[in-house]
């Protein structure tokens, strides 16, 4: 028998039993998948985006396949915080009792909307908050909060002042230099950052000469964006002192380990779950086999350990 591998990682003082978690918007709130896989094996469960009031999302069609991934323009459709607390929180509380950390993804069109959700979650059994700054700021010409360093620092500071849980800022990759945004989030007091969110893309039906998505543009996810994610996680992790959660096209244990070697303390899996509900558990198994194969007793040794 080989030596047992320690898979625990710590994000902002919160210990996860392993570094694998769901990516927001790809796992619902976990309930549907609980019938298919053992979600109690996950390090954390990240919810779908939750807003202050119900959001209808974008018109249809809003999903299109691409050669190495998919485009989505769902528009963060959700029933709002009141319904979330009533309908989803009892299930999430039970999952949390079984050792899975609960991370709620928060979205809003204004700082006030973010804070409204944060206030409602103050007493909820939630371990961390992930703030989705890819949302358009309706008061600033719809530019995403996460694309302007000054705006990002301000919304981060406002969220930190009100939040009872540690705050993760989820960064958009649709910027010139991710390091500038990572530093802005850190300056605003973020406890951690997560990246990358989807890359903006477009697909056209050449026969009909029409956009495939009603929204025209959508977020590209899947294997196609993984090398971009590795590069941005590496850059961000070396620009700040706070923990990084990496995501973007993770399909295998190798992909997840690549992000950790680049500097991520934990890894989120998204698009892979759509075609393989048990992808996260397979990825975790592959990571553990790697540890055993290489004689690594603590997975934290891999964080940022890339050389050359």
Description:
- This protein is an alpha/beta fold.
- The protein has helices at 31-34, 81-97, 111-120, 149-162, 178-187, 226-237, 253-262, 272-275, 279-293, and strands spanning 9-11, 14-16, 20-22, 44-46, 63-66, 69-72, 101-106, 128-132, 167-170, 192-195, 199-202, 204-205, 210-211, 217-221, 244-247, 266-269.
- The strands form four sheets. Strands 3-16-15-10-9-8-7-4 form an eight-stranded parallel β-sheet.
- Helix 7 (253-262) links the parallel strand 15 and strand 16.
- Helix 3 runs parallel beside helix 4 (149-162), helix 4 (149-162) runs parallel beside helix 5 and helix 7 (253-262) packs across helix 9 (279-293).
- The longest helix is centred in the N-terminal third of the chain and has 17 residues, at 81-97.
- The radius of gyration is 18 Å and the shape is globular.
- The chain starts with 8 loop residues before the first strand and ends in a 15-residue tail after the last helix.
- The mean pLDDT is 95.
Order of helices and strands: EEEHEEEHEHEHEHEEEEEHEHEHH
> What value does the Rg take, in angstroms?
18 Å
Number of strands: 16
Oligomer: single chain
Average pLDDT confidence is: 95
Count up the domains: 1
Give a quick precis of the structure.
This protein is α/β, with parallel strands linked by helices and about 300 residues long. The chain has helices at about 30-35, 80-95, 110-120, 150-160, 180-185, 225-235, 255-260, 270-275, 280-295; strands spanning about 10, 15, 20, 45, 65, 70, 100-105, 130, 165-170, 190-195, 200, 205, 210, 215-220, 245, 265-270. It contains nine helices and 16 strands.
